[in-house]
């Protein structure tokens, strides 16, 4: 679980129609929620319609499966030369992201205050390297999955202003509010004690970890790991962010309900911008959310942290039934989200969808 190494209007808008139009056919299905959002975006966004057409072409071509399988094998079996290229790529993506969004610009409270950076999933370290170049006086705390557990090699040079801790952030139980671990849990002895000091705050938080196929983990985690990793990064990142600070979060598929709803949550407590770099990962659905001036002590932010910690607890300690219940989406939730946030979602998605569509038009499995 480390940083990524590879992100018009119709005449009758859906959010202007009666609420019944937005109701899910199956109000308990996350898949149905995603289909409802997709229907909305197909009606509202020319950029999304073009991307959807290209995606369907790729899905219908077996060469697309081969293309992505080769990419996965390259990432999983990266040698030193490949790892170095990935590190350089993340530096370039970081530079582009900062140039366009000022993502790494720390606004100091006073000249005597040393800027502080938190990187929840560091390896290979290119993003943190970029953030430190933009803030040379900053100190950083960075977590990274150990190589022995399947993590990527950290190429960020050793420095006195960077504290590196090699651990699995999804096992930070005490920080996530779980001091008592059930004795019968399959990983009862592997959960970690508190890593953050009380009141420890950062000006910039980087949350761009992804689940790694090379990560050795217990079988129960396979279907739950993405949610465990996301909620850990968000909860601890927000909880330890100085009011007015910045969070940079790697996300996937802006058209998914969980992604759209997350953007909606942050829009209530910060200035939110989405951006898909053109220096790398153009063909994938990944993009970055840059949330500036985050009011991390706002009641909505505190409520979000509690919800993320609760979701982590269910994904970590709950039964399969508990977990399935926790990820269900009510039809009224999707309708409310689109009515309130649909137009903003379309605006946020335009650049990312355009960049991915442009890349797909040049993909070998599309041209063929």
Walk me through the structure.
By secondary structure, the chain is α/β, with parallel strands linked by helices. The chain has a single domain, classed as Vaccinia Virus protein VP39 (Rossmann fold, 3-Layer(aba) Sandwich). 44% of the residues lie in helices and 14% in strands. The protein is built from 11 helices and 9 strands. Helix 5 links the parallel strand 2 (116-119) and strand 3 (139-144). Helix 4 packs across helix 5 and helix 6 (225-239) packs antiparallel against helix 8 (299-317). The radius of gyration is 20 Å and the shape is globular. It starts with a strand and ends with a helix.
**Which homologous superfamily in CATH is the superfamily?**
Vaccinia Virus protein VP39
Number of helices: 11
Our Rg estimate from Cα atoms comes to 20 Å
Number-wise, the strands total 9
What composes the largest sheet? Answer: 7 strands, mixed
Biggest sheet, spatial arrangement of strands: 4-3-2-5-7-9-8
Mean pLDDT score: 86
In whole angstroms, how far apart are the ends? 34 Å
Principal-axes shape call: globular
Share of residues in strands: 5-15%
CATH architecture: 3-Layer(aba) Sandwich
| Succession of helices and strands | EHHHHEHEEEEHEHEEHHHH
CATH first level: Alpha Beta
Number of domains: 1
Helix content: 40-55%
CATH topology: Rossmann fold
> Poorly predicted ranges (pLDDT <50, ≥5 residues)?
4-28
Structural class: alpha/beta
């Amino acid at each position: 679980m480390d940083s990524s190494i590879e992100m018009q209007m119709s005449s009758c808008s859906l959010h202007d129609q009666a609420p019944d139009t937005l109701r899910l056919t199956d109000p308990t299905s996350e898949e149905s929620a995603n289909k409802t959002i997709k229907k909305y975006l197909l009606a509202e966004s020319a950029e999304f319609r073009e991307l959807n057409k290209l995606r369907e072409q790729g899905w219908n071509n077996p060469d697309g499966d081969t293309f992505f399988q080769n990419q996965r094998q390259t990432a999983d079996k990266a040698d030193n030369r490949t790892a170095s290229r990935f590190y350089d790529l993340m530096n370039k993506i970081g530079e582009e992201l900062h140039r366009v969004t000022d993502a790494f610009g720390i606004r100091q409270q006073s000249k005597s205050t040393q800027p502080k950076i938190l990187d929840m999933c560091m390896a290979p370290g290119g993003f943190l390297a970029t953030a430190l170049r933009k803030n040379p006086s900053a100190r950083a705390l960075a977590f990274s999955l150990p190589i022995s557990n399947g993590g990527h090699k950290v190429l960020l040079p050793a420095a006195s202003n960077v504290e590196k801790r090699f651990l699995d952030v999804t096992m930070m139980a005490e920080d996530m509010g779980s001091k008592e671990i059930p004795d019968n849990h399959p990983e009862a002895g592997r959960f970690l004690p508190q890593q953050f000091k009380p009141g420890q705050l950062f000006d910039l938080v980087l949350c761009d970890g992804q689940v790694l196929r090379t990560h050795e983990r217990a079988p129960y985690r396979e279907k739950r790991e993405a949610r465990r990793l996301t909620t850990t990064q968000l909860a601890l990142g927000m909880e330890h962010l100085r009011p007015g600070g910045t969070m940079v979060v790697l996300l996937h598929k802006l058209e998914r309900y969980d992604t759209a709803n997350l953007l909606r949550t942050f829009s209530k407590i910060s200035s939110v911008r989405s951006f898909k770099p053109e220096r790398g990962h153009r063909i994938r659905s990944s993009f970055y959310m840059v949330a500036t001036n985050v009011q991390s002590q706002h009641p909505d932010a505190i409520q979000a942290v509690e919800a993320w910690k609760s979701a982590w607890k269910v994904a970590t300690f709950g039964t399969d039934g508990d977990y399935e219940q926790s990820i269900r989406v009510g039809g009224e939730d999707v309708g409310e989200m689109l009515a309130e946030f649909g137009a903003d979602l379309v605006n946020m998605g335009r650049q990312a969808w355009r960049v991915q569509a442009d890349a797909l038009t040049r993909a070998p499995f599309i041209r063929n």
